[in-house]
Amino acid sequence: QRFPVVVVGAGPAGLTLGNILRAASVDCVVLEVESREFIEQRPRAGVLEEWAVRGLERRGLAGNLLERAQVHTQCEFRFGGQRHRLPYAELTGQHHFVYPQPLLVTDLVREYADIRAGDIRFGVRDVQLHDLDTDRPSVSYTCPETGRRQVLHCDFVAGCDGARGVARTTLPPERVRIARHDYGIGWLALLAEAPPSSDCVVFGIHPRGFAGHMARSPQVTRYYLQCPPGDDPENWPEDRVWAELQERLGAADTPPLTEGRLIEKRVLDMHNHVVEPMAYGRLFLAGDAAHLTAPIAAKGMNLALHDAFLLGDALVAYLTEGDASGLHGYSADSLGRVWDYQEFSQWLSEVYHGTASGDPYRAGTTLARLRRLFTSPSAATAFAEQYLGMEATV
Ligand code: RFL
Fold first, then answer.
1. What is the rounded distance in angstroms from the CA atom of residue 71 to the CA atom of residue 140?
2. Mind listing the pLDDT tens digit of every residue in the chain (394 residues)?
3. Domain of 212?
């Protein structure tokens, strides 16, 4: 079988890309190791930046999102026992959309497979990429039904298989540079069957460690608790989780958090990486496969969508009009935003974790940073701009 494009991975990046290709009548196939049910339920991100939502809307991919997403206009920092609101929409004219990643993935699969009749193969095993430095690359995999190897010949491979996929590992080490950053901290990522306890995202900056509160839906709230990297989630029974959340997110004149059953509890070790360039021969990487951003600033899904827009438009321009400029510029165009978001994540990480570092010097500078956000309007506006992400028409 031969396809102009084989897309490896059905996350936000791969599915958005597949939809852009289908809309332009470019034939493609999406390969996914998991089942459709699994990817439609995998809980992860939830915060989308306005430019990303407009990019989906322009491509006919934001119908449900615009109907159902919550609009967030401010966030709150709690430190020193007080709460401080940062009205980022007022400062920038932009807001966040809160729409759980599984819902976005469900919408994108439905649009791609059921409406645009795109080819998507779930449950594939042992995906391998071949001959990427030729103009006849191919992708092979083991078919789950027959157990036989299948080979798909193509013109381009889009590596959208996330941080643990095969695409990045296929890159010859002498042709790419991988920049890594390890924050040396862990976050216990929690989903609670409890309504949000605030109408906005809350960051608890506390000497015992960071804690975060993020609405996901009227019934479900995501919480984070800073913990040692590699910690065992079993060390965190429900009682301990709620006691720490109440303590770290507590502030004067604030009622206690509404507690509920924990439906997800996993430890994330906070680290980032960036692959440069994001292309090798006929392979183009997109999303977490190329650049992992710890969920510190809620940027990963936004970057995945940005890549999908750029790469989708570039592949369509090449395959339908022979215009290669988008493909040539793809890596540099994506990396500008990637590095901007990496830098903001690093800055924000210090704000979140500095007071709990055990180092009184770092604690002092962190609190100075925080106070500046609430005493200097220009510092607040600069924060708001970065929190909402660079404006773009993509
Ligand atoms: P994905 O979503 O990981 O999708 C990759 C897909 O590829 C499949 N796959 C393969 N398929 C075929 N062959 C192989 N060899 C394969 N190996 C893997 C996988 O099964 C999967 O379906 O990558 P993509 O599309 O690049 O999207 C990236 C986003 O998912 C990610 O950046 C975000 O979830 C990060 N993130 C957040 N981002 C935000 O923008 N806002 C947030 O609020 C936010 N919160 C989060 C997050 C990530 C989290 N985790 C789990 C690290 C919260 C958490 C807890």
1. 42
2. 899 999 999 999 999 999 999 999 999 999 999 999 999 999 888 899 999 999 999 999 999 999 999 999 999 999 999 999 999 999 999 999 999 999 999 999 999 999 999 999 999 999 999 999 999 999 999 999 999 999 999 999 999 999 999 999 999 999 999 999 999 999 999 999 999 999 999 999 999 999 999 988 899 999 999 999 999 999 999 999 999 999 999 999 899 999 999 999 999 999 999 999 999 999 999 999 999 999 999 999 999 999 999 999 999 999 999 999 999 999 999 999 999 999 999 999 999 999 999 999 999 999 999 999 999 999 999 999 999 998 888 8
3. 183-270+355-388
Residue 102 lies in a domain: yes
Q: What is the ipTM of this complex?
A: 0.96
Asked, for residue 394, whether it belongs to a domain, the answer is no
Can you give the CATH number for the domain in which 175 is found? 3.50.50.60
Atom of ligand 1 nearest to the CA of 300: 32
Is 39 a pocket residue for ligand 1 (Cβ < 6 Å)?
yes
Q: Using CA atoms, how far apart are residues 32 and 125, in angstroms rounded to an integer? A: 9
The answer to whether residues 197 and 314 belong to one domain is no
Element (H, E) at 337: helix 325-353
Phi, psi of 144 (to 5 degrees): -65, -30
Substitution site in 301, 337, 342, 348 for ligand 1 pocket (most atoms within 8 Å of beta carbon): 301
If one counts the domains in the chain, the total is: 2
Tell me if 127 CB under 6 Å of ligand 1.
yes
Task: Please indicate whether residue 304, judged by its CB atom, sits closer than 6 Å to ligand 1.
Answer: yes
